[in-house]
Amino acid sequence: DQQVKQNSPSLSVQEGRISILNCDYTNSMFDYFLWYKKYPAEGPTFLISISSIKDKNEDGRFTVFLNKSAKHLSLHIVPSQPGDSAVYFCAARLRTSYDKVIFGPGTSLSVIP
Amino acid sequence: NAGVMQNPRHLVRRRGQEARLRCSPMKGHSHVYWYRQLPEEGLKFMVYLQKENIIDESGMPKERFSAEFPKEGPSILRIQQVVRGDSAAYFCASSRTGTFLSGNTIYFGEGSWLTVV
């Protein structure tokens, strides 16, 4: 039962263009969403997050959009750079007795120079 | 990633042997999470521990896997009688409070790659 889905395993984008990574979730109890970036042979690093009470959060070249009614969020990277080539994980927080973070399967982004 | 130390980075075990993966959280962090990444898959939650307590082990296989986070020393993920399907990257993460006030309160280590031959 995959509660966080990233239906595109991979994405290729030209340098300078926009990269759009999508994420869907099924559990309406998620209240916070995060994006992590991972390079090969390294651990994931936090990129950007958004609370469920917002619909947009922007940090430099990275913007996350949340559509609660559709249970959908997306990460926009503008402009894309070759150094952005990595696997991007969408994650969602579930508040139980503690904050449980559930990750999606990831999307591998390749930015072509 | 700074501060969360995992070792070994790479571990090769024969089927039936034991694997022990260690995680030292960031200084001041008393909450540890273990995730597993199988080939071509995402990060799967395994277990969440606080010092001397297992809070949530719902993601741990029922047999052969155990985790601890003693009062002193690193957190240990132990896999007994390893099988080929245990080959994966195991990531440890830590946080100060266990509550994500913002996304950057959980920090991951660089992972331990287990290969079972």
Order of helices and strands of chain A: EEEEEEEEEEE
Question: Strand-and-helix sequence of chain B, N→C?
Answer: EEEEEEEEEEE
Compute the number of strand runs of chain B. 11
- Main sheet summary of chain B: 7 strands, mixed
* Average of the residue pLDDT scores of chain A: 93
Task: Assess the beta-strand content of chain B as a share of residues.
Answer: over 45%
Evaluate the radius of gyration of chain B. 13 Å
Largest interface: A-B, 28 and 28 residues
> What portion of the residues of chain A fall into strands of 2 or more residues?
over 45%
Q: What is the secondary structure topology, with strand pairs?
A:
The complex is a heterodimer of chains A (113) and B (117).
Chain A: E1 4-5, E2 10-14, E3 19-25, E4 30-38, E5 45-51, E6 56-59, E7 62-67, E8 72-77, E9 86-95, E10 99-103, E11 107-112
Parallel strand pairs in A: 2-11
Antiparallel strand pairs in A: 1-3, 3-8, 4-5, 4-9, 6-7, 7-8, 9-10, 9-11
Chain B: E1 5-7, E2 10-13, E3 19-24, E4 31-37, E5 43-50, E6 53-56, E7 65-68, E8 75-79, E9 88-95, E10 106-108, E11 112-116
Parallel strand pairs in B: 2-11
Antiparallel strand pairs in B: 1-3, 3-8, 4-5, 4-9, 5-6, 7-8, 9-10, 9-11
Structure description:
The complex is a heterodimer of chains A (113) and B (117). Helix content of chain A is 0%, strand content 59%. With 113 residues, chain A is mainly β. In chain A, the strands form 2 sheets. In chain A, strands 2, 4, 5, 9, 10 and 11 form a 6-stranded mixed sheet that branches. In chain A, a hairpin with a 6-residue loop joins β4 and β5. Chain A is globular and about 45 Å long. The relative contact order of chain A is 0.34. The mean pLDDT of chain A is 93. Chain B is built from no helices and 11 strands. Chain B is an all-beta fold and 117 residues long. The mean pLDDT of chain B is 91. In chain B, 36% of the residues are buried. The N and C termini of chain B lie far apart (29 Å).
